[in-house]
Amino acid sequence: MTFFQKLIKRATLVWPKNRKGVALLIVLSAMAMLSIFVGEITYTAQINQKLAYDRLDQVKAQSLAKSGLKIALLRIRAYTEIKKTIGKMTQSAGASADAVNSVVPKSVIEKIWSEPITVPFSGDISSLPKTVQDALLKFRKDSTMEGKLYISIEPQSNKFNLNSILPQFASVSASPTPNSTTPTTPTTPTTPGSAPTATPASSPVAYDITQARQQLSDQIKTTFQKKFDKDEKFRDLYRSYRIEDLVEDIFGWSDLSYDSPREQSATIPFKKAPFYNISELHYLQSMDDDVYNLLSEQFTASVGSMINVNSIQEAVLRALVPLMTDDEVKKFFDFRDSAGENASTVSASQEASGDDNSFKTANDFFNYLKTKVQAFGGSDSKINDFRDSLAQRGIEITTEESNFLVHIEATIQQTKRTLEAMVSLSDSQLPASTTTAGSASPTPTATPAQAGVPGATTTPGGTDEKSNLKITQLRFL
Amino acid sequence: MNSTLVKLLKARARPILSDQGFTLVEVLIALFILVLIGVTTSKAVVDAAKLREVLRDETEFASEFRTSVAFIERDLDQVFNPRWYLPANFKPIDPYNNNATPPSTTNPNMKVLTVDEISRRTRGAAFQPSDYWGPVIDPSGIRASRFKGKSDSFSFVSASHQRIYQQKRESIYAKVKYELIKQPRNSNLSDEQNARVADLQALVKRENTHAFEVEDPKDVGYINTYVILNNIKKIKFSYYKKDEKDPVKEWDSESTEQKGIFPIAVEMEVSISGPKERNLEEKLLFFLETPNDLLPKTY
Prior knowledge:
The structure holds 2 protein chains of 2 kinds. By secondary structure, chain A is α+β, with helices and mostly antiparallel strands. Chain A has 2 domains: 3-52; 64-241 and 286-477, no CATH class. Chain A has helices spanning 3-18, 22-93, 97-103, 106-114, 130-142, 209-230, 232-238, 243-254, 289-296, 314-320, 326-336, 348-353, 362-372, 380-393, and strands at 117-119, 148-155, 160-161, 299-300, 306-308, 396-398, 403-412, 415-425, 435-436, 469-476. In chain A, the strands form 3 sheets. A 5-stranded antiparallel beta sheet of chain A has the order 1-2-7-8-10. In chain A, helix 6 (209-230) packs across helix 7. The longest helix of chain A is centred in the N-terminal third of the chain and has 72 residues, at 22-93. Chain B has 2 domains: 22-80 and 147-299, no CATH class; 82-145, no CATH class. In chain B, the strands form 2 sheets. In chain B, strands 8-3-4-5-6-7-9-10 form an 8-stranded antiparallel beta sheet, with helices on one face.
């Protein structure tokens, strides 16, 4: 008997034994199929539930981000209120700005808005006083907040405003009056919240739109040149790039009064209104992403053309004061960001504050340049020329921030929502120690309404039931 | 004892191992049990399959609804109006009063454009509102954006656009319009299925990334239309004015009554035909986050 014959015989013997197990097989198969279905349904239900919870988290995170914005606004408001109060106290007590600065250092007041915070507070609190620790712990415990909030507020007056080529957006002197000498310190007490007196130029220069355009054009060219020097690849790519076309596009896009030869050939019709956001540069025919990235480091689109020298960044400082050498630029930041050990070498006001080297007034900045930058060589006339050039461009040097970028990150579980809002202090209540370069007297920031538009009442009041904060833009990223 | 048990087992086992087969009754009983189990399990399997399908449809439906709501919420959150760059007490140019705009200030280099000059430079379009923009209100050329709302559509300028592709001529701004259209034909459905939903409507989002073009040209690549919600039986938008309890049916920030003002919230009342002939009826409220004016003191 062959092997196969044996196998068949055995199978026929075995078969009758297993015939009764068919039902079991069917049941098992059905059970298996059911398990697969149930498994799949459970999986689908779980996915669905997760999606629903994720959506819930997104909604919570969005609400949390909005709450974060309110906290940020509260901080900015607290900052302006404290500055106002200090200003009033100074005026009523007849104290000097320096005396006030020594009691309440400027850097401390600035921290009200500039210090990034997380909510709930998660840092090491062991070094804090016991009462503060208890209050924080109680707050943490009482808080039913599920997620985490990160709030940072950044200065926006640390870049050039592209709108400075527009008379309505340039910082201009209201009525320049001649003045003779250049005192090294302000003639009246200057404190946060009180009006300072600028170091006047010997021959005040008014805003000049032609000069403003020319100097913006020069600045863009310089920016390209510096990039060429640093980046060979960029230089090879953009060697034949026509910067003049870019400048024409910028003027044509934003200035209603400018007749650009490129208007007819523009693929996107010129807006003929101010830039509301720097991303509008993408609309320009001569713009591409590399050039945009280059320009967005230095330029912004804002209402006021102020540059805050206490938050200015290196690229902008180099563009603002092209005469500064690398070493001088480095020393500038070392000095400004240090704790005050060099304060006495600069000015009386800085000396008095003793706590930080941030510039208290625009004059401090100009005085620093005069004494520390070799190109100015301590010469009043050179500094005044520099101030005149800024005035012609409508650029205002300030030491107080009035435009803020609020950045909020709200996290719930794995969901994160990011919110960015541009917040400005209203024109009526801008920090008073802004100083127009080249002007003889301090002027409030010029806004379009103040620059000659009919019917624009510039009475600062009228805001009794309103705060001085204004959100000009809000973005969920 | 053991040997007796073995014998007994062998005696019991013999008939089973034999080739005699089952009796008819045994077979009938076995068949009955088999059918019973089969029917029960097959019903369970079919029910499970149906449930799976229902669950999938429900998930898709809920997801589509959530996504469309998120679209509207996101755009309305980021509504944009350049008017907010100007002071609260600002008064716009009056084109019918040419003398209202001074030809220049004390500074000759700070010449401010007159109404005539503005008109000339904009080829007469300066003081005409369009669907998304109002007239020029400032000598620098600022136009207020326009919020237009009806019961079945609303449009505005939003700062919500995300620039995804490199080298695209786009900014953060876009002209956005939500409107109701006749339900478009779905190529994934059969003719019969399409016929069943033919009388329903769809909500579409129209987005023009060239936000500052005064007029919307037709058939251009940068105006995109997305269907964001299908199978709408009924939809109604209404608009809330600040400090007022009841909403209004229409809104136009260029109308005399609502000049320069945006609603504080948009209400959407919607009835949607869901899976398995079921209806979803919802009333949603979308708040416009950016305020119109300086913030109240409570901030």
